[in-house]
Amino acid sequence: MSVLEGRGITKRFGGRVAVEDVSISVDAGAVAAVIGPNGAGKTTLFSCLTGASSLDAGAVVFDGADVTSLGADARARLGLGRTFQRVSVFGSMTVADNLLVGAEATRRTPLWRGLLGRTDPRAAGDASRVERVLALLDLEELRDVEARTLSTGRLRLVELGRALCGEPRVLLLDEPASGLSDAETEGLRAVLRAVAADGVGVLLVEHDVRLVLDVADHVYALAQGRLLSSGTPDEVAADPAVRRAYLDRAPS
Amino acid sequence: MLLTLQLALAGLAFGSVAALSGIGLVVTYRATGVFNLAHGAVATFIAYVHWELVARQGVPEVVAAPLCVLVLAPVLGVLGYRAVFRPLQQRDATPAEALVTTLGLFVLVVGLTTVLWGNSAKRAPSVFATARWDVGDLTIRSDTVVQLGVVGLVAIVLAVLTGPTRLGADVRAVVDRRELALLSGVDVDRVNELGWAIGTTLSAITGLLLAPGLSLTPYGLTLVVLETFAIPVLARLSSLGVATVAGLALGVAQAELSQVHVTAEPFATALQGLQSNLLVVALLGGLLLLPSLREVGDAGTARSFSSRHVRRTSLRRSALLYGTAVVLLASPLTYPAEQLRQAQAVPGLAVVLVSIVVLTGYGGRISLGQAGFAGLGALFFAKLSTGAPELIALVGGMLAAGAIGVLTGYPAIRRRGLFLALTTFAVGVTVSRFVFESPSLTAGVDVNRPSLFGLSLAGDHTFYAFELVCLVVALLVVRNLRSGPLGRALVAARDSEDGARASGLDIGRLTLFTFTISSVMAGLGGALLAQTALAFESRAFDPVSSSLVWFTAVVVFGADSAAGAVLASGLFVAMELLTGTSDAALLPIGLLAVLLGRFPGGVLNGLVALRRTAPAPVVVRQLSPTGKALVARR
Ligand SMILES: Nc1ncnc2c1ncn2[C@@H]1O[C@H](COP(=O)(O)OP(=O)(O)OP(=O)(O)O)[C@@H](O)[C@H]1O
Ligand SMILES: [Mg+2]
User: Fold this and answer.
1) Does A74 share its domain with A181?
2) Which domains does chain B show, CATH number per domain?
3) Does the distance separating the beta carbons of A104 and B488 come in below 8 Å?
4) Quick one: which H or E segment has residue A163?
5) What pLDDT does A100 receive?
6) What is the interface pTM, i.e. ipTM, of the complex?
7) CA distance A194 to chain B (A)
């Protein structure tokens, strides 16, 4: 059952089309992946799905409801978690506090409550959820370390942890393995499987082909903003159009 | 018809000077990436030097004016760049830091002017002898012609400089793509020095031409030049052509407005306000209506001058800190009334400064209009207290300030950095001009101290105790803004807006919230200040000598340090007591602000860091994505 769906998404920057008429669907409990050369429009597609940028055409459907007009924060509160290609953690906070924000921010609490120093009764489970996620991502030892001092690989995990703490229904990860060591990537693979097994739909953008072939149930290949091909990892890997798109690319 | 022409000529005279000032701001901004908030202060300083040379030392005008404009001004510009802005650039400071540094420069230069020449008004000499020619019925003044000529000359010089020369190409390269220019071997230093030199030269011309028409005081001329910010704003910080036209057009429009007459009442007052404040209205209108300014680089939030660390003070240390503070603040209660009265300004000012901490330190938003909120709180308190119990009036004043705070918060949701700084400044100036300085609103306003359930607080000791209670309440609010889910949400939004939004935080709501809290708090502080003085004085809530100076002081003492804000308030009052003038604190604060590049988290944090003997910070030149791509390609 699809939990997140993009229908005919189109996004232009000035005259330049970054994403054109792309339809995509993420099932609960499954891992989908978007692949494509640099500049293919993967991150832009993510921004459209999460609400970080507006669409020029198309619609985004979350859990059966049209969320196209909702902002990024409202979609996040509904259960749409994400990470960024350019990590955006809260640098001056500790790792544990970063995760705690992820848990707290999905609830909308009256701000005066905080002003008067009252606590939210719904906050009771936050601490234990943070602990669980810290354990899952093997970040327990870094709990009290200020985030800005960490390596990119660790920051990606912190960001993933923050998203997980919001108990997302669907998780969008933009290049989660870039900057990760081999061991960390191995850990990520296990985490992704565990998250999907929990019933969360996962959509990832990834250049690490091995990781994609290994964990994805469904692959979408983009090139120059258009959907080239989609299907199981093997089908897409065998598609001549995909091969051509990758071979056309000037060697970098 | 004749009158219209005559007025147009007068308007052109002022408009051309305004245009020159605007052009100077745009040139410096495009060439160096820094919007020079000290532009007006530099103009004033050089006008004073000119006065000193001509009126006091008897230097002939043919020597004095060129010396000021062509030697002193560019030298100051280049020195300022080398001493202050180049180190910032080398550290890769954010534009917000550079902006605050210009504010520090402003405070420093005004402070220097006051120390050297005092506060009393001077009569500035005219650079050019004024002749009049009668053409038919029309009188043409020679200074109009000269000023228009100077604008034309400047336009030609700038056209040549940015034209098809090697230097022009360099300037354009730096302006368009700073980091690319850095990599492709353009002499960025030279372009920067040129940008500053041109900017200060034009500000000197502005100062020398404007001063004779006004009486020369440190703040008066400065504010007039600050009003010309309308011109770079209308030019969206980029087009010199638009800046020239906007300057001339505003000058003419302002002059022609004096012909318009209305008698129907609300309009008559509004028109009167408009007639003397067209530039202010254009500044605010331009900022609110323009979708964006063409800012250089990413303006960022104010996070960069908050302290770099989340402080986790131990309970014992904070108990000690707050204990000392309470004892210090409460000690005046033991003084006789005479001395106590002098300490009464401390808690009120501290509340206002803490409100800046809320907005800038916690909310990450620059606010250059805080005195406007404070003044509204004071004025509405005073107005309401004629008909209602003082305590209710006090709440009313706070709410009035809060209402304007919310209105300012709306545009602030989408604005950052320079754009927001100018918007808040414009709001402050507008409130000051149209409310505080409007005789119909402020004449004969009585200010009384409140009474609490029948207990009068009019006595100096009881009133001071009441002020302390207010300060403690403000500090408790601040503590709650700093801790718990709300505190984390604010820090999160400050650290990474994208990340905060993706986690589910509503940035707009948080922004409005901080603006509301901050302005309500400022309103309280303002009302306390008015109750201290037992009068409403518009001068106490001036958009320049209060707003800008207060903001600078808060940043110097650590934008996210409430304790620093309280300390700053004590410093202001103590310096005034010691020296007898409220401008005494300007020099140290300006100096520290200019040095902020070396103490990024503010003075207190700088001292703490020194004591911790932290390893010297590694200077990493960060390149923007474009720059990185270019390096990678090489
Ligand atoms: N804010 C923007 N303004 C203008 N153009 C943009 C913007 N964001 C992206 N683009 C353009 O849209 C196209 C798609 O960019 P996008 O970042 O989505 O690609 P991507 O597939 O994520 O690439 P990469 O693998 O490098 O991350 C690119 O050509 C890019 O230059
Ligand atoms: Mg991308």
Assistant:
1) yes
2) 2-129+138-289 (1.10.3470), 302-611 (1.10.3470)
3) yes
4) helix A152-165
5) 94
6) 0.92
7) 21
